[in-house]
Task: structure prediction
Amino acid sequence: MRNKMDVKILKRFTFLYRRNFEIFLLIFTMSIACILLTHHVRSAIKNVRYDRQLRGESITVSMDKRQIRNDRLKSMLHCFDRPLQMEQLQYGHYWLLKNLIRGRRSIYMGCTESITYTTNGDYTFLDNIEMVVTRWMGPVSLALFAPGYDFNATMDSIQYARHCLPESGLIRDYVTFHIYFPNDHMPPERVPLTEEEALEWPYDCQLAEAPYENVDRSNMYKTKKNLTYPINVGRNIARRAANTHFIFACDIELYPSRGLIEQFLDMAYDNVTLVAPSREGKAMRVFVLPVFELKKDAAIPDSKKELVPMLRAKKAIPFHYYVCKSCHVVPQQEHWVNATFSDKLSVFTVGKRHKKYVYWEPFYISDNHEPLFDERVTWEGQSNKRIQNYAMCLLDYEYHILHPAFLVHSPGIKKYNPKSERQQYVGPMNKFIAQKIKPEYAVLYGTNKECRV
Ligand SMILES: *[C@@H]1O[C@H](CO)[C@@H](O)[C@H](O)[C@H]1NC(C)=O
Ligand SMILES: *[C@@H]1O[C@H](CO)[C@@H](O)[C@H](O)[C@H]1NC(C)=O
Ligand SMILES: *[C@@H]1O[C@H](CO)[C@@H](O)[C@H](O)[C@H]1NC(C)=O
Ligand SMILES: *[C@@H]1O[C@H](CO)[C@@H](O)[C@H](O)[C@H]1NC(C)=O
Result:
């Protein structure tokens, strides 16, 4: 009897044991599956995010490699992450609404995570912003000059660009807007006090055309009041507002070849002394992009592979070829054109602003340590970039020409126009530069017979 009982208990026990084991096994397998699945989904999300960032670019780097690059550059370049903040400032005789509307991704951009394209304009130049941001795929710092009632149209234009274009999402992600106006040309009504208020500015995507398109310039406040355009004030505002270590001070009508940010940061990561020579007490340097002009109806080349046939067919020519060829041609430009294409960015050649290049006014990537743009020089007076490069010549800057990256101007070839209204400003400005600015620069930077304004 007792024995029978024991066998029964034993059987039951075994049964329980087995069932528990099965349950245990089931739970165990499911946990493993869960872990694997989360991991997979996570990395998939990362990749999607990353692919989006690189949309249109030919290089793909893994997230981890980017992080490693970022950390290493940050420690080597000694820079700090600095979130963008809105500020209302007095800037000389201007009022400045700095970071009035910030790019959502640009706010917290790490100092070595990207490069800021810094630029300027009035609202009529906003037709370029979509092209710039889709090709740059990184932070853009844009200073807009908006005196008097131009302020309204400026806000209308910003909101239109941020909401009504196919690539408005990228504009909201990356473009940070600053607005400035002279204190004796105030907007007629209250301006937004905070970013929140600015974002509430109404917009209408049903308009027949964008508020910045086909503007009759003669009706603008700026024109009515005969104001000159303080281009260098805008350039400096945009530069000073950047929160990345490297910047690219550019004109908004110049579009970079694709993938440049990733290419440049990879180049920097491969050889930090190349981009930060000051750590070894060597000459200061900037990284120049050759710039080209396109025929009116030409497509915009994405890479040098597309550019070269256009050059051969004369659909693309060196920038300002008919206006001031020697202002923009880079040393060994023909060799540059002939050089074999490579995905990797490198320094093609190194030059100084001497001899054949004394009037050079190149566009370049820099660490934002080069002299500021002289704010007394207006757009109308021309020489507005030359004067800065003159200072850099006095400081003995080296210009490192990059390959295969480049810039193209918004299509249309510029011809010299002696009747241009700007001409009336050029004479007096040159005189001012010779009599006032040059002597000042001699005190600040010294003199050098090789250097010309
Ligand atoms: C500016 O815009 C506001 C509303 O956005 C409008 O009430 C005002 O009349 C405009 N002012 C001018 C001068 O156009
Ligand atoms: C602007 O210049 C034009 C021609 O040079 C002149 O007729 C006009 O009075 C000026 N307007 C102002 C507001 O200074
Ligand atoms: C890195 O750049 C420096 C400065 O231009 C150069 O002298 C050096 O040869 C480069 N190093 C390598 C490994 O390419
Ligand atoms: C570049 O290539 C073209 C055509 O292949 C040739 O005619 C020209 O001489 C080359 N220029 C240089 C500087 O090598």
User: Anything to note?
Assistant: The chain has 14 helices and 14 strands.
